[in-house]
Design goal:
globular; Rossmann fold; about 15% strand; alpha/beta; 13 strands
Length: about 325
């Protein structure tokens, strides 16, 4: 090339490395597109992630764009999913908090309905102590937002250990200094729930069904999807902070009506035989001697109390519950 002349460059086609003979080879650089600044990922740690409520909360968190650190005692590769970090750990232990770095919120769902003292599974350990551990972990990690699951009937001086330890767990949350919300659901129903599943087997088998008490106690069953919605919406609801919110379904039912709907969904019409409260307590006391008894003393006491609530606040914050209990239709096939 003559002096003073600029070498002629031929721009290769995209995807080609061709160049003119004698020309210097130029790297093919594709300018990075200009993108708007992305918000930091929203990440929440979820305890009890493999449980009945936890599975639905996890599903709805992912649908809402959250990354989830899912914590449970046992995890399976089959439940792995994009956007989820699975951590198999005892919530009372010290191994799991390091996996929660970067989280900005926590949802604590761990709870049990019956104790297994021989295995170290007690209401106090699972409800109170585990909640205190979660509160401590939030403080260690700088997580300020905590949504906690309690239960209707939780109170100091309650008849049952279940309710008393639920109250103790609430106290740990209320005095934590965090931006907390406590949700108290009524009876929760849906595929995999323990309540209707425990009723289904005897309703299917026998022409007679024993009913504890007169069957008139009132319950307000709520769908698991609507419970999960309340947890997910709580995370971004400033109005829910420092609130204890009771959540129940769109209608209250007597225990008899709930049993009728459960039996109807299974294609059964058994005769209900009502047992007086004293006889019911004696029968349940004897059943405790049988491994895997269908009902415990605490459960019977809570059944006799009923489970209804004022849903004005929950409807205002999360929308009204709309799904009526029609029995376990998922078991009818």
């Amino acid at each position: 090339m003559g002096q003073g002349r600029t070498p002629k460059r031929t721009r290769p086609h995209h995807g080609s490395s061709a160049h003119s003979p004698g020309e210097p080879t130029l790297p093919l650089v594709t300018p990075a597109p200009v993108r708007p600044r992305e918000a930091a990922p929203r990440r929440v740690f979820l305890t009890g992630a493999t449980g009945f409520v936890g599975r639905e909360v996890r599903r709805q968190l992912l649908a809402a764009g959250w990354e989830v650190v899912a914590i449970a005692r046992h995890m399976s590769a089959a439940t792995a999913a994009p956007g989820v970090i699975q951590v198999a750990a005892d919530i009372n232990g010290d191994a799991w908090p390091r996996w929660c770095e970067g989280c900005t919120a926590a949802i604590h769902l761990v709870g049990i309905i019956r104790e297994l003292p021989n295995q170290g599974v007690t209401f106090d350990r699972v409800h109170r102590a585990a909640t205190e551990r979660v509160v401590a972990a939030c403080k260690e990690l700088g997580i300020s937002r905590l949504v906690h699951m309690s239960a209707l009937g939780a109170r100091r001086g309650a008849l049952t250990g279940y309710q008393r330890t639920k109250w103790a767990a609430e106290e740990a949350v209320r005095t934590s200094g965090l931006a907390w919300t406590i949700l108290r659901p009524s009876v929760i129903f849906g595929p995999g729930d323990g309540f209707t599943t425990s009723l289904a087997a005897p309703l299917k088998r026998a022409p007679f069904f024993p009913v504890f008490g007169d069957g008139r106690v009132r319950l307000q069953p709520i769908a698991v999807s609507e419970v999960a919605r309340a947890f997910v919406r709580s995370l971004e609801s400033p109005a829910s902070v420092s609130q204890v919110i009771e959540i129940g379904g769109p209608e209250t039912l007597t225990y008899d009506e709930l049993l009728r709907r459960t039996a109807g969904a299974l294609g059964r019409r058994p005769v209900f035989v009502h047992l007086a409260p004293g006889l019911s307590r004696a029968l349940v006391a004897m059943l405790q001697l049988v491994p895997g008894a269908p009902i415990t003393r605490d459960q019977l006491a809570m059944l006799f109390e009923g489970s209804t609530c004022d849903t004005t606040l929950s409807a205002e914050l999360f929308g009204p519950a709309l799904i009526r209990f029609e029995g376990p239709t998922w078991l009818s096939s």
